[in-house]
Records
---
Amino acid sequence: MDFGFGPEEERFREEVRGFLAETLPADGKRDMAFLQEWNRKVREKRWVGFSWPEEVGGGGGSIAQQVILKEEMARAKAPPLGSCFMGLAWVGPAIIEYGTEEQKQRFIPDILDGTYQWCTGYSEPDAGSDLATLKCKGVLEGDEYVVNGQKIWTSIAMWSKWMILLVRTDFEVENKHDGITCLLVEMESPGITVRPIKNMSGGAMFAEVFFDDVRVPVGNRLGAEGEGWKVTVSALAHERSGIAEVTGLQRRLEGIRELARECARGGRPASEDPAIRQRIARADARIEAMRLNGMRFLTRQLRGEKLGSETSINKLHRAQLEVELGELALEIQGSRGPLAAGSDLVPAAGDWQRFALSWPEVVIGGGTPNIQKNIIAERILGLPKD
Amino acid sequence: MDFGFTEEQELLRAEVRKFLDASCPLSEVRRIAEAGDGLPAELWKQVAELGWLGLTLPEAHGGAGLGWVDLVVLLEEIGRSLFPAPLLSTTLAGAAIAAAGSPAQQAALLPRLADGSATGTLALLEGDDRLGPEGVALAGRAEDEAVVLDGEKLFVHDAGAATLFVVPFRSAGELALAVVERDADGVVAEDVPGIDLTRPTGRLRLDGVRVASDAVLAAPEGAEAALERILDLAACGVAAEMVGAAEAALQLTVGYAKDRVQFGEPIGRFQGVKHPLAEMYVDVESVKSLVYYAAWALDERQPDASLAASRAKAYATEAFARIGLDVVQLHGGIGYTWEYDAQLFLKRAKWARPAYGDAPFHYERVAAHGGL
């Protein structure tokens, strides 16, 4: 066991620190011009897609270097590396693993550059947690798939140029996981209708997407026909590796500590209330556990083992923490907690209220907590499937 | 960067487990605990010969010179087997002497702990049940070449079996640490009845006990710093035992959930059963991560070692308390019986909750570390 790093890795840390000191504005102001400049510079350094192989344009960073980069980014409160969230999180990794040379060349550079957004067409009205029962239909006609059906809960569909889509190409299968095919679909294709759904926070981040005789060239199929489930499972596994979320949670908790110092309730700052202090410390211990769990997973990868369902551990932690931190932020605010943006009485222009109403995006998306518990119980503890 | 155990450490784990499975299965744990005859002498001799009692003590004083990461491997297995002898207490007394003793004091005391001829424990708490330097009021007065101690230490682990006590006291207001031998005049140490029969706890009465000046630990970095270090080591050590016990309780219950059939199905098929088991697994793995890191940070004297130990003990305490309750409940009626082993883990969780700081104590330290 050794959490220290070798001289070469420490040199890399110095490089990152030097870059951040030079690049991040001293006055803390981060306007659009800065963000554009930031995106260009980190792309140049190949820190976007840092873990991806160099031959596709990634950084080819070692696992130790990835840890260092994340640590230093968090310490400096740096903006994210790259702007194409879903592309970097799972579409890119799936294309790298299953895509043709042509697909890699066509899509990977744009994902790294953040040229446009990707969305994910998995869930359907009747196929949510039981995703493999999906019915959106793809029929091969000549060199095109003709797609008909509906997707739902599709995050940022209205702002995306491309979608990674699961369709059923074979309805005569015994195993529901067979007969599913993964397609890469341009959102501007004729026959696609996107209808945003207003969520409980009042915004619209997700949408229904309708497919009416949408024609997708066979060259846009990712992986073999009928192998879509495998492609998807591997992509979702990328989403669950977990360590990246720790940085965001640490920052959020730091914000909550500040909030607790600023908000007075019952005649004293909330930060002096023992009940609040305990909850903040509980969250702190769990975020640190997530970070260290992630380090244990990385070590296993370093030793050449393949990660399995144990990454659901951090997925569950994250779900609980997202809810708890939102609740905590509102409780700290006392009577101001239920107010909303637009009032001069609400701290931070209502950001915490928005946060406290947006947890379902991460808690439900990508597999609900109950599904994660099923995965752990069945695949790790060996309990019978229900 | 390598967050895993070495081959040697995995080997140690396998050897410890093999010995405990063969020589101290839960049936034997029950026999020893229910008999209540104090130290199981034969078993103690064996583990001393295996080198477990001096694992982290310097080689010059009969130890193996290993670190707390190695010790964590041993303690996880000790916890898993509910080993009914004062290995943790003796280890912590040794760690205290190694941390605060002069070379001469270490040479005089540590070999006796390493070879099992002495059993040690920390006698930290008093009537106000306050852990740390502020909780030490017991008075010592200088007299000739000695200190005379008068007072009582409470909630002393393995008080009945220990032959050597590390006792913080105040001399003219200043904190100091004495080593008190059981056979000194005026020492009365006895266990009091407790819930967990495998883990006796008791009191230490000191009535005009003369402690020679050279038995007051030198504490070159100061007694307060030494005591803080001892508490961090203790929190990490007990958390390692807890995670081992919690994992054993989880495995016992998973096994039952696969075998027990109701409504025509193994009950492990029902989400009402499988979900709490999955939650236990998440907690066990997460506490492991915190404990392993704390042990490494303590070994390497990292600036966040104390914070790491508090995070580990706090989370371990909450998790194990719930796991203890859940394993009994998930077993149904059989879990409530004396005969079945689930209750042993529930009781160990009760013992472990306040041991070296409960969850509120350690969370408060985490909050303070975070600038609150």
Note: The two ends of chain B are 31 Å apart (CA to CA).
---
Amino acid sequence: MSEKMNEKLIEVKNLKLFFNEGKKNEVKAVNDISFDIYKGETLGLVGESGCGKSTTGRTLIRLYNATDGEVNYRGENVHNVKNKEKTLEFNRRMQMIFQDPYASLNPRMKVVDIIAEGIDLHGLASSKQEREEKVHELLEIVGLNRDHAGRYPHEFSGGQRQRIGIARALAVDPEFIIADEPISALDVSIQAQVVNLMRKLQKDKGLTYLFIAHDLSMVKYISDRIGVMYFGKLVELTTSEELYKNPLHPYTQSLLSSIPFPDPDYERQRVRKTYDPKSHNYTDSDDVKMREVKPGHFVYCSEKEMQEMQKTF
Amino acid sequence: MNNILEVKDLNISFHTYAGEVQAIRGVNFELKKGETLAIVGESGSGKSVTTKSIMRLLPKSNSEIKQGSQILFDGKNLAELSDKAMEKIRGKDISMIFQDPMTSLNPTMKIGKQIAEPLIKHQNFSKAQAKQRALELLELVGLPNPEIRINQYPHQFSGGQRQRIVIAVALACNPKVLIADEPTTALDVTIQAQILDLMKDLQNKIDTSIIFITHDLGVVASVADRVAVMYGGKIVEVGTVDEIFYNSQHPYTWGLISSMPSIDTEDDELFVIPGSPPDLLNPPKGDAFAARNRYAMAIDQSEEPPMFKVSNTHYAATWLLHPDAPEIDPPEAVQRRRKQFPGNVTKGEK
């Protein structure tokens, strides 16, 4: 993975997304965050509900227009694209898998048409037969079979529907997939099936993932690097190993100490930490930003805090 | 006799257009005084139906608790109690916390009134007494400024605060049994940790027995004294929390435990339970789990396994525990866990 990691696929620079901008009820859902996603990696994004992780994912794929900042895909800002052809091209490269497999599939469309919608839109099949063959192939890739093509979404279980959602995303042969809580609506035994499928597809097709979730043990398992968000800010970003072994931001520490693990002995010894954002005591003169505290380990902190963290190594 | 609740041979069916769905097929368990019993299993395994039947909250129009089912509480069989008699128990001796704190409170009622309601109804409190007790309860569940908050409406609270209020309502009459149906599933991990701590703390203070339904094994490890694993409308394994996590015997429990990545799971593939749960319209002959079980034997297809005894507290329904069953190697994650368990037994007695 290391040699692949050098190629930047996506560069997010000072991205902001405010709802109700300038009004009294303005919400700074994403407030000045920057990060890179490298080709072939899985970047996990975690945080509690309302922290802006889904909004970040949706802004990357332009379901929302950024208030400020850039999202560069192979060096081109996706929010600046004006002509239709370019838009289509970006849409082909970037796809999304949604959280709720019950809401994200049109109940009035047959599976074959759901999956082939992208193929039609981008003109990827020259004949009806080719279109059908492609759909059958996709169904088999995600572990369903060709007989399923003629059915409607309600005939499938949650895990099967999520597979259809994945097949739809794969139909246009993307290189980057945003998965917004793809497994949180599924049962434990089915979650493992979907996660294994996503990892297999990544290996076979060299896909890059942004994996948004709040189930931290699964995120650790699937991600190469993890970003932690809190109130619209990215507070920590590093490899998943390092994040679990050596969390530096107090919010990350509190988050990790709250996850119950399926191990009664561990649970009896667990000490929970709480996070109080006031504990930082930042003053106006503190330049609080993302700093590289250790090589590859970024923390949102002030100069003084960074020095204190570095003392502990 | 320290069993506060005993469920014996519980059978429940739903009558649908497609036919009779046998949702619960012979469930037996007991709840001891002061303990937390966790019931785990995937959706459709029957965990919610079991607990709803204890509260007698199943829809009358299409559900049927079969003859011979016993839910013994306080010398009465709840399965046969009249609606009127059940009303005296529900919310007083047995109360329930639901999954979604957004929908289990009445949006048009001040929260103080919602907490006072069971007190006035069941305990003949005066309004003033009930208000006083409501303030105490809000304090108990850790809601700041109860004097002000008591006059507010549910929408003025966050999800975690609402769940605290729901707990306060459930605890108002000091119930003997508290049923918590996925009480933290809708909450964030940090809030979940607070609510779990609160429930453990309250249990120590008021000595209630808790039935805790969840599909999150992490939560089970953190709250449970004993665990019952449900599959296809039956309990397939029951034991203390250590026995289930470190010495499980049923292949379905193995699947559940090893399909979740633990803290130190590395790059290897996750263990997967193939296929999907059984269709309870036509429950399979033999072991309901056989179709998804890689350790299934010929007998699993034809005959249902009885509960084999592993220890005085640990039982599992799998033919693998039969003295004549072949030796097999459970999944690696299970073997790793077994090393943490002293004196483990592999073969049981009937």
Note: Residues 188-205 of chain A form the longest helix (18 residues).
